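Per-record layout

source: Planifilum fulgidum
name: Flavin prenyltransferase UbiX
length: 197
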Amino acid sequence: MKRLVIGMTGASGAPYALCLMEELLRQGHEVHVTVTEAGWRVLKEEHGWRVERREEALREALKADSGLLHYYPVRDIGAPIASGSFPCDAMVVIPCSMGTLAKIAQGISSNLLERAADVMLKEGRPLIVVPRETPLSLIHLENMAKLARCGATVLPAMPAFYHGPRNLEDMVRFVAGKVLDQLNIPHRLYKRWEGSC
């Protein structure tokens, strides 16, 4: 089982993060999560969450075992995930706003999520960012290229159609599955391409 850090930002695409965390928890992986203020706003807008009781809302939505899901407020810069001495296997920022992506690329740590991502890069651990924006400006592209050069994996939220999605959930599961592929975690979230005649 793996220990993973998940960061959610204010980019549209909260379903990707929820699907990913549901699958990780279902498989028994340990999930440490932090959500930016804008990320909570997106959860409210896209899912109708009442975000006054944040940790409770997250646990309820994910039906999470208290031993596997660990939540940290984004302002808690003293949380375990802020330190390189905290052992973990990887971090995923999903969805990743262009503002957060830019700060990570420039080494700016103004909150816990950005600090945790900075720790992953400095410790040489896997960092996956899942940007959700279109169209992309040259600034966006250059920041993504910089992160890639620094060792991060840039995995844009780009659903595919070759697996025959029947609904929106299938498209969400595809993106979450691609993240799991990068983490080397087996899953059945989407049907893999087997070639054609």
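summary: The chain has a mean pLDDT of 95. The first strand starts at residue 3 and ends at 8.
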